[in-house]
Amino acid sequence: MNDRLIQYISPTSNHEDTHRRQFILHVLLCATIILLSIASFLILIQSIQLGSTFRGLPLWINLVLLTFFIGIFLLSKKGFPHISSQLFIWTYFLFSIALAIHWGVELIASLMFFALIIVMSGILVNSLFAFFITMAISFTLFVLHHLQTTGVTHPKLYWKLEQWGRGEIITVGILFFIIATVSWLSNREIEKSLKRARNSETALKEERDMLEIRVDERTRELQKTQMEKIAQLSRFAEFGRLSSGLFHDLVNPLTAVSLNIEKMKSHTTGQGEMTEIEEDLIRAKKATAHMQALIQAVRKQMSQQTVQELFSINEEIKEAIQVLHYRARKNNVSIEFQSQHDIQTFGDSIKFSQVASNLLSNAIDAYVESQTPSPGRKVRITLKQKNSDVILEVNDRAHGIPADIIDTIFEPFFTTKQFHNGIGLGLSITKNIIEKDFGGTITVQSNEQTGTNFTVTFHKRDTL
């Protein structure tokens, strides 16, 4: 039964404000219809009991009002809540005027009805309409009072000579209760709207936060993918830079192999010559091994494989020196490698080789535009172990890094070199490898007079 009643008085509008006002209108209309029905029944009983002495509101007026309010309710259910609200308020307004004309403007019931009309106007329509209806009520009361005092109207004022009975007290109490109920309904619906708004705001904020998280995650994924692609391009670019020196270093061992083989062919097979042939073979074997080492070092630089293994840090540095030997010699740079002993750690040897090559390559390139004389062009690589930490230092004595840009040298694509000498990814990739693959740090100290020193520190690991 309650569900059917709620469904019957439920609003039909989807607009939030109209929905709230329509619901309050339906509640007030239903309450009015019920009260008029009860009043009509009581008037009918009193008129039968009192007969010609009955001085209350005529029954036909109550029945007309009841029918009219039912029509307003049906009009609102058909989708015209604004018109229905206006009709509802103006009907109460005319009814209150009729009471004031019939019983006098001083009638408490009519004055309370006017107050109820002002409250309902602000709730069912808007505040502007409430001000308008207030002015209309004030003007109406002024006119009715003037007509009453000048004798134009003759209201029934006998009630002034009688004391209030229970009926009058109950009537006033009911009107107070109606005013309080209208205010409560309005506040209740506003609070529900505010609660929905707050819930929507919270849900929107959570959705926005989740969207920001997803965007950040996607951005990091894209940046990681881009960095991997760019790093790959950087390795190919680096290979192009190394190729001239690499081929130069490969030609000499191959030439030595060819000469030794030709020499072997020209010798006789006597016992005396065999010793010399064996020496030539040994030299050819060493030259071939040197060539294989160079090729292996370059292949390691170009590889993208990830292999976790126990490797020698010393050997990786030596291979990097070997690969960059020609470039160093071309720029009159000597490379000095110092290490206390062979240090081994567990990790990705290929990535560490890339770190060593990038730092050594940067140190060599620092002399390209430097005015440092040839005897002073030296790169010193120092490797040592302190407790469980491995410390790698790469030092040059070139022109150094200006103080205003030293904080930005690890940013991607930042470079002080000419375009053909670099694209600004070497130090960025190096920092990324040291921090993420080896859990270490890289710092730089530079002075325009004494040169630059890069220090790599990470924890030595024996196993994964």
From TrEMBL:
Presence of the UniProt keyword Iron-sulfur in the record: no
Entry annotated with the keyword Protease: no
Recorded coiled-coil stretches: 187-228
GO biological process: phosphorelay signal transduction system
Catalytic reaction(s) noted: ATP + protein L-histidine = ADP + protein N-phospho-L-histidine
Domain ACT: 235-312
Transmembrane segments: 23-45, 57-75, 87-105, 111-144, 165-185
The protein, known as: histidine kinase
Organism: Candidatus Magasanikbacteria bacterium CG10_big_fil_rev_8_21_14_0_10_47_10
